[in-house]
Structures are given as structure tokens and as C-alpha cells.
Amino acid sequence: MKKNPLIIKNAILNMGGTIEEFVPERGCFYINVLGKRILLERKISITRQSFVSGQLTRCKDITHKLLLAHNLPSPQSECFYKKSFIKQEAEKQLNNLKYPIILKDAQGSNSRGIFPLIGNLRDAMILLEEELPHYRSMIAQEMVFGKEYRLLVLDEKVIGALEMIPPYAVGDGVSTLRKIIEEKQDLTEKRTEFDEKLIQILKEQNFTLESVMTKNEIAYIKKSSCLAEGGETRDVTDSVHPDIEKICVAASKVVGKYLVGIDVMCDDISKKPVEQSFHIIEINGKPDLYIHYNPTHGRTRNVVEDIVRFMVKVA
Questions:
Q1: Mean pLDDT of 74-89
Q2: Does pTM top 0.85 for this prediction?
Q3: Could you give the CA distance from residue 70 to residue 79 in angstroms, rounded to a whole number?
């Protein structure tokens, strides 16, 4: 991810610091700031304890089991491992879940190895048997719905929070949905595939690819955020309910990190979690920081300065 180093370096320079390239091929560089010299890489990781904390956020199955053990809200999940896979046991595990479910590579990142909206046990079993040989482990999780948020936790505080808005198309009263999507994605990093999943998502909104929407009418083309396909972000840092902040700080401690990015799903980030459906979906121990700069809606949060000042304090 090339955007993170650029954001980090610019923030350091704005703080009056300097940058020394160390091993640029590995994305490693020193920052000299506030009287400290600190070695960084493309993404920043700050651990509370160094024993196994890297594994705790890199492996989704371990993360889920830790959240469950500490009574922190997370969707019901089942874990599968290539070395110990037994078909009959897997069927029993999948039968414990409410559908639809999502199947994920337990160590995947950047939206790779993700298979959402699996509607029944038969389809889940077929997909698991096809995909598990390609991965060391996979996790099946009940899908929960609502708004998707990404919260950046540093020590005892949420320093940045974004609503992650799924890609959508806006009607003009003339063009088909297919044409609007194609034209909008001329400038995106990745194009949305016109497959059965897209057709199903549109059908749930009473649209087809050939529908002509009225002017300013909106159709979502994915159920989850995907910035590469035209998703948007809205800063909601000042709206996070204190009880949600407490849960996220507690989750960061469970996985042994001072700094984490936490994906949550709920109806409204400003409301108490007990008054709504609220779930922690994933925790990232090396979170993207660039997304908190220049969001589509709302103001920039200079999270890098907050993080650097914390690192200087504990270094």
C-alpha cells in the first residue's frame, strides 16, 4: 500500500521532522521527530505485548475466538483448517450457522479470499471443499447487516472513525444501470463484475442491469464497502458513542495492540450498542491510515500525528 508511507512522511514533515530512507525496497525508513529517531515501514504496528500479538490480528479465527472468550460482540462463526478437515464435521459446523453466511480466508487481506452471501448449507459445503485446499484455514461467519464503520483505536481512545459507504450508482432518468456503472468505474481502481451476485443485490432493490432509474435515484452495487470499486467514506469521529468506544478499546487490549483498525457493523455509531445490532467484524493490527485523510464527506483527521506523538512517548 503506497498511500500509507506518503501520508506518514507528509505528516512527519509537517511536524517539523525529517525522513531518512533505510531500505526503500522494503518500504523501511527512519523518522526524526520530537527528539526521537524511529524506524517505520509501510504500515505501523504498536503492540501492548510482543509474545503473539502479530498472530492475534493476522488470523481471523484467533481474533474471533478471543472476542468470544471476552464476551465482546462478534458474529457467530465456525473455523476450518486444511490439515484437520473432515467433511462430516464441517457439515455439522456449517449447520450451526444462520444463513446467509460469508466464507473468508482466515489470513486474507485487501478483500481477497472472501465469498459473501452464501444462502444455504449445500452451497456453503461445495464452496468450502473447493476453496479450503487453496488456504491454510477459513472462517465461516453469519452475515450481519447495517452500516459499516471503521474505527481507529490508539491506546484508550478512538482517534478516527469512518462510515464506509458501499459503491452505488445514481440515476439520470435516461441511462441504464449497466451504463451508469460502467461510466462511473472508468476512474476507479477496480471494476465491479456483472455477475450473479450483482444481479441479486440489484434484484433486492427492485432493479436490473437494464433498469433506467429516475434522476438522483440510488442503487447500491455491493453490500459492503469497497473503495477500489467506487465506495465512499464519511468521517464520524465526533459521533462515536462512548460505550462503542469502550468496546473497541477493550477489543484492542484483547488482541494485545495499542493501535488497531476495527471494522464494526451497526445501525448507528452514535447510539448505545445495547440498543441495536452491533458486531465487531474484523480487527487489523496494521491499519490503513490514509483513509482518514480527505474522506469523501467530512474532515481530515490527522491520525498520524497522534500516533507519532504516542510512539515518541513510549519509545
A1: 95
A2: yes
A3: 18
